[in-house]
Amino acid sequence: MVECDFPECTTFGAVIRFSLELEKGAAGVYEDLAKEPNAAAAAEMFKSLAAAHKKRGALLEFTRQQKLNEMILEPIQDLNREAYIIDTKVLKGVDTKAAAKFAAKVEETSARFYLDAARIAKNLMAEAARVMDKLGKESQANKAKLDAL
Amino acid sequence: MALLSEVKKDYGKLKNYVNGEWIDSTSDKVIDIENPTTGEIIGTLPMSTVDETKAAIEAADEAWWAWRETPPITRGRIFFRLKELMEQHFENVARIMVQEQGKTIDEARGETRRTIENVEVAAGVPSLMMGYGLEDGAAEGIDEDAIISPLGVFGAICPFNFPAMIPYWFWPYAVASGNTYIVKPSSQVPITQNYLTKLVEEAGFPPGVMNIVNGSHEVSDTLMEHPKVKGISFVGSSPVAKYIYKHSAEHGKRVQAQGGAKNSLVVMPDAVMDRSVSNMLASFYGCAGQRCLAGSNLVAIGDIAEPFLKKFTEASRKIKMGYGLDESVNMGPVVSAKAKKKVLEYIDSAEADGAKLLLDGRKAKVPGYEKGHFVGPTVIDQVTPDMKVAKEEIFGPVVTYLRMNSMDEALDFIHSSPFGNAASIYTQSGKWARDFRYRCQCGNIGINVGVVAAMAYFPFAGYKDSFFGDLHGQGQDAIKFFTDRKVVITRWY
To answer: What letter does residue A70 receive in the DSSP assignment?
Structure first.
C-alpha cells in the first residue's frame, strides 16, 4: 500500500507527495521481486526498473522545486488517491510470470494516475503536467515490457 | 495528519548580520516571534538601536568602494553561488516560512522559487547595467557615452506577507549593480531572512556588502534619515508607504514605496465559469488573502452574477484550512491575532452595512490548532460600492461580491478607489480584454489571471496610492533605481 494521510490530492504539493510515495512503493516492489529465486530470469530487469523508479522520484523532487508556479496555485479537484493505490506486498516464491504480472499491475496503476493527473491538472500545474505525462507514458511502456515476459 | 517536519522548534534570539559578522544586539527590547498556526513562540527578535543601525550603515559605506570596483561579472558569479545554495536549502527556506508566516507549503515553495528567480536575474548584471555611447555623438571627433554607475548604500524596510521574496525584489539588484545594502526584515517574520542571510554569507559576499538589522521604527527611521543612505525601498500599507516616501525624500533619498491595494476581479458574462472560479480561489484565498495582489472585490457583470456566485461559494466551502506543513492544506491562518481581529471587524462592518454573508469565516476552527489565527473563507454578497468592505484593504480571505451592469461601470468603480495595484478581467472576448487592459488605471492587469505577480525580469508595478515613487522593484526598473547615468563627452587632440 502507498501511505499518504490525505484522501484527495487537492494541491500541487499533495500530488507530488503522492507521486513520490508511488515511486517509492514501485521501487520497493522491484527490489523485492529481484530477490525472488523463482523469478531470477527477470532479476536484472527488475533491478533496472527499481533504479528507474528511484530516478523518477528524483525527477519529481526536482519538479516540485523547479516547476511550481506560485501564480496559479489553484486547488486541484477530482484526483482521489484511493483510485490509485498500488499493492506493494510481494508474495514470496513467485515465479517470473507471476512477478511480471504483479509488477505490471503497479505500472498500470501508476500510468493511470500520472495520465489522469496530467489531464486533470494540466492548467494548474503548468510544466509539471508535462512531467506527469512523461511518467505516465513511461509506466505504460514498462507495463508492455512486463506483459511480454 | 502527517506533517512535514519543522526545520527547528526554536530559532532562539536572532542576531544582526553586519560587516560579515553575526552580532548580538545590545538592546533590552525583545519581541517574541510567534508561529501563527500553533501559537508557539519560535524565537525572539531584538529591537536594534539607532547606534547599531548607524554602525551597519557605516560598515556598508566602508565596503562600498571596493565592491563597486569589483567587476560586474565577478559580482554576478557570487550570485550564481548564492543561487546554488538557495536551491540546496530550498525546502528549509520554504518550511521556515510556513512556520513563521502561516502560509501553505506550496505557497512557501512558490515564494522560494520567486526569491531565487530574482537572484538569477540579478546575476545577469553585466548585461543589465550596460551603458550606451555614440561616436561623434557630441560633434565631429567628440564622442558621447552614458555610463551606468552605482551610488552607495541602500536599504529596504520589509513587510510580513512575503518573508523571503520581498527583500529579494531589491537587494540582489542593488548589490549586483555595485551598491551595498541593509535589509530590515519584518519584525513579525524575520527568521526566513535570517536563514537566507547565512547563505549570503556562505556565498562569499565581502563583509559589509549585505547586512541585516532587525528591529522596528528606530531602525527604519535611521535608514531613512542617515546621510550615507542613498535610497530606500519599502513594501507595506499605503499610509506607511506615503510616510516613508515623504520622510525619506525629505532626507534626500531615492524612494520606491509600495503601498496597499483593493483589487477587483471582474467576471464578464462570457467568462469560462469553472476555470475562472478555480483561478479566483487562488487569488482570494492564496496566502489567506494577505498579498497585495490578492483579489478582494469580485465584480460580476450581468446575468452571470447568480450562477457564478453559487459556483464560487460552493468551491470556497471546500477550501481546507490547517497547518501549512500538511501538504493537502489549501489555506493557513492570518499572521497574527491583531490581523485576525482587523479582518473580523471588516466582516462585522459588512453585516452592519446590510451585506449578506453567504460564507462566514469568523468562527473558523481547525482541530488541533485552537491557538491558530484562522479566518475561514468568507463570501459577502450584496455589497455596494459605498460600503467600507468594498473600499478598504481587508488583507484576509474575504470576498466582497458586487453586481454591475457593464464593464464601464466596473471600471468606474475600480477608478473610484485610491488604490491602483491590480485588477483582472475574466472573459473570452478579445475586445473586452483589450479595452480593460487599455483603460484600467492599475499597475498590474490580469486577463483571466487573478494573481498578477510580475516575474523577476518585469517590474512589480502599481499606480496611485499603491505605489509612491517612479521606479519599481525587480528587473530593469530596479537596476535604474539603484544606479545613475553618468554622461562622458570625450575629445582627443
So the answer is: G
CATH class of B263-447: alpha beta
Whole-number Cα distances in Å, B141 to A44, B136, B138, B145, B146: 76, 5, 8, 13, 17
Q: How confident is the model over B202-207, as a mean pLDDT?
A: 98
Contact B445, B331 (CB under 8 A): no
Q: Which residues of B touch A (CB under 8 A)?
A: 1-2, 87, 90-91, 104-107, 109-111, 113-114, 275, 278-279, 281-282, 286, 315, 318-320, 326-330, 449, 451, 453
Q: Which domain holds residue A134?
A: 12-147
The rounded distance, in Å, linking the Cα atoms of A66 and B49 is 40
Distances from the Cα of B100 to the Cα of B33, B93, B201, angstroms:
7, 11, 22
More confident residue, A3 or B56: B56
Residue type, B55: A
User: In this structure, what CATH number is given to the domain that contains residue A20?
Assistant: 1.20.1260.10
What's chain A's length in residues? Answer: 149
Active site annotation includes B292: yes
Distance, in Å, from the CA atom of B277 to the CA atom of B280, rounded to the nearest integer, reads: 5
CATH 3.40.605.10 applies to domain B16-259+466-491: yes
Instruction: Tell me the backbone φ, ψ of residue B206, rounded to 5 degrees.
Output: -60, 155
Q: From the candidates B158, B292, B440, B442, which is the catalytic residue?
A: B292
Whether residue B64 contacts residue B180, with contact meaning beta carbons closer than 8 Å, is answered with yes
Is B279 close to A11, i.e. CB distance below 8 A? no
Q: How far apart are CA B62 and CA A28, in angstroms?
A: 58
CB burial of B5-24 (b: ≥16 within 10 Å; e: otherwise) equals ebbeeebeebbbbbbeeebe
CB atoms within 10 A of CB B291: 22
| B331: phi then psi, degrees, rounded to nearest 5 | -150, 135
Task: Please give the Cα distance from B470 to B460 (Å, whole number).
Answer: 11
The domain tally of chain A equals 1
Determine the Cα–Cα distance for residues B280 and B180; give it in Å rounded to an integer.
Answer: 40
The Cα of A115 is separated from the nearest Cα of chain B by a number of Å equal to: 20
Q: Burial level of B450, CB count in 10 A (0-12/13-18/19+)?
A: buried
Residues 6+ apart with CB under 8 A from B88: none
Q: What value does the CA radius of gyration of chain A take, rounded to a whole number of Å?
A: 15
A140: its cell numbers:
505504460
Instruction: Tell me what the mean pLDDT of segment A69-91 comes to.
Output: 88
pLDDT in tens, B40-83: 999 999 999 999 999 999 999 999 999 999 999 999 999 999 99
With bands split at pLDDT 50, 70 and 90, how would you rate the model's confidence at A68? confident
C-alpha B220/C-alpha B230 separation (Å) is 14
Name, in order, each residue with C-beta under 8 angstroms of B71's C-beta and a sequence gap of 6 or more: none
CB B374 within 8 A of CB B366: yes
The C-alpha cell 508566516 sits at: B101
Specify which residues B463 forms β-bridges with. B420
Side chain identity at B4, as an amino acid letter? L
Q: Where in chain B is CATH 3.40.605.10?
A: 16-259+466-491
- A48 lies in some domain: yes
Per residue in A120-145, pLDDT (tens digit) is 888 777 789 999 999 999 999 999 99
Name which of A60, A74, A49, A56 is nearest A125 in CA terms: A74
